[in-house]
């Protein structure tokens, strides 16, 4: 089940990163400030990085341990919170009604992504020794 989740979210995040990247580069280019466009692009980059990670781990981990399931969850939820909160902040700010409640969501998503990477590292060490 976790393998399918990893593949599903990897493919979904990858697809959406392409769509959002094109949307940002073309439709939003003249509507956002340079700083807002940079923030939007950061969300797209991190989303794509983690889409690729989800696909790679789906082919390399068995997900037969709780640790592997938790790191998968950290990557999926972290990507959702990090990238999508950036999109919400940028788009709402550009429309004049910034959704400030999303401000604390972005670092929480980043923290989950960092935890996912640490757990992946720990998983490698655990399997190596």
TrEMBL record:
<protein>
    <submittedName>
        <fullName>Putative membrane protein YgdD (TMEM256/DUF423 family)</fullName>
    </submittedName>
</protein>
<keyword id="KW-0472">Membrane</keyword>
<dbReference type="GO" id="GO:0005886">
    <property type="term" value="C:plasma membrane"/>
</dbReference>
<dbReference type="InterPro" id="IPR006696">
    <property type="entry name" value="DUF423"/>
</dbReference>
<feature type="transmembrane region" description="Helical">
    <location>
        <begin position="46"/>
        <end position="63"/>
    </location>
</feature>
<feature type="transmembrane region" description="Helical">
    <location>
        <begin position="101"/>
        <end position="125"/>
    </location>
</feature>
<feature type="transmembrane region" description="Helical">
    <location>
        <begin position="70"/>
        <end position="89"/>
    </location>
</feature>
<keyword id="KW-1133">Transmembrane helix</keyword>
<dbReference type="Pfam" id="PF04241">
    <property type="entry name" value="DUF423"/>
</dbReference>
<keyword id="KW-0812">Transmembrane</keyword>
<comment type="similarity">
    <text>Belongs to the UPF0382 family.</text>
</comment>
